[in-house]
Amino acid sequence: MNRKAISPVIAVVLLLMMTVAAAGAAFFWITTIQSRIQGQVGTQAASSAASSKQFKIVSAVCGNQANDILNITIQNVGELVIDRGFAAVTISDSNARTIETITGNLTANLESNGIATLNFTQTASLIENQTYGIKLTLPGGAEQTASCRAD
Description:
Blueprint: H1 8-52, E1 55-61, E2 69-76, E3 85-92, E4 98-106, E5 115-121, E6 131-137, E7 143-149
Antiparallel strand pairs: 1-2, 2-5, 3-4, 3-6, 6-7
């Protein structure tokens, strides 16, 4: 019986191809896992920083057609200072449809347990005695929701 074996050159080429394929698969797998873990750590760090800068809305007074000022009083209930900078408030109707988004300024850093009042100038005419939802976002991304009644 005549048996033919694989030539040594073909055997070496096949071994090299399998080695390259295994190395490529391992590289792809490791980089995928590494980027996923890195993304999760970044998300957790941002979430942790935002949650450590907590505040609560003490009161909110919406303006009406005669008074276009929205006053929001807040208190820093977190342990970290809330940095001064741009703040945004979104006003929505009873169906959660956005009426207006207004930017304003937190003029000074807000220390732990500190209280500040933010004044926003509305351009939308709110209906008197109607309740509206507000969402306030402070510098650093911390946000809270509340409601106000147009007086």
